[in-house]
Amino acid sequence: KTQGTGANPVWASAGGLVLITSSNLTAEASSWDITDCFSATYENYLILVDNLTVATENVDLRFNVGISDLSTTRTIRWSSHQWGSFSGTSTTYYTYTDTNGLRIADGLHNDVAGWSGAFYVFRPQDSGTKTRIWGTAQSYSNAAAEQDYVHIFGGNVSSNTTDVSMQFTASSGNVGDSAVTATTRVYGLVNS
Predict the structure, then answer these.
(1) Can you tell me the distance from the alpha carbon of 104 to that of 134, in angstroms, rounded to the nearest whole number?
(2) Mean pLDDT, 10 residues at a time, the chain of 192 residues
(3) For residue 32, how many other CB atoms are within 10 A of its CB?
(4) 100 in Cβ contact with 62 (< 8 Å)
(5) Which are the contacts of 83, defined by CB distance < 8 A and separation ≥ 6?
(6) Biggest alpha carbon distance in the chain?
(7) How far apart are alpha carbons 136 and 175 in whole angstroms?
(8) 45 dihedral zone (left: phi>0; alpha: psi -120 to 50; beta)
(9) Any idea what the Cα angle at residue 24 is, between residues 80 and 145, rounded to 5°?
(10) What pLDDT, on the 0 to 100 scale, is given for residue 2?
(11) Sign of the torsion angle spanned by Cα atoms 47, 168, 96, 100
(12) How far is the C-alpha of 119 from the C-alpha of 61, rounded, in Å?
């Protein structure tokens, strides 16, 4: 398409993201496992999660990576920062090394508001480097008082590993709710 005199515009390619898998969680479960979603086909991945809930009041939501069947998951060194909207601005910082994975939300409220976020997983299939994770999210929380939170989180697996699967868990109780459909989409990032 030509717009006036001069060069034709160049439109961005739609091929930058390739949907690898999508998954719905429609009931309570001890973990939400998305297996064999990372491979050598793509170096980096975008994960979109919408409306993930927890079954128990005021628990943390965690993310982890591991081998195909997730019988082995990783120790992750991580930091998170969250801002709340109750009585002005509240801020919480965390930094940990945790065998239970990366804390992606603190003190979630167990209702239909859920947790929604977008994050990247960098080079999970490369055994020569540590899997890295970085992202942002929004949730409704009941940790101190009912409020909305914005989260920024990141971390890396504590050693060089090959990770092909991912998992969401709660610090206590289950994830998911039969009254709410949570959705996860995993996209491979095309290097072009």
Answers:
(1) 10
(2) 51 74 96 96 96 87 94 87 63 70 78 84 94 89 65 89 95 91 95 74
(3) 21
(4) yes
(5) 89, 90, 91, 149, 150
(6) 64
(7) 19
(8) beta
(9) 40
(10) 42
(11) negative
(12) 14
Q: Supply the pLDDT for residue 1.
A: 41
Beta bridge partners of 139: 115, 149
Alpha-carbon span 167 to 174, nearest angstrom: 12
Could you tell me which of 89, 99, 83, 102 has the C-alpha nearest to residue 153?
102
Exposure string of 80-113, with b = 16+ CB inside 10 Å and e = fewer, is bebebeeeeeeebeeeeebeebbbbbbbbbbeeb
| Neighbour count for residue 13 (Cβ, 10 Å) | 8
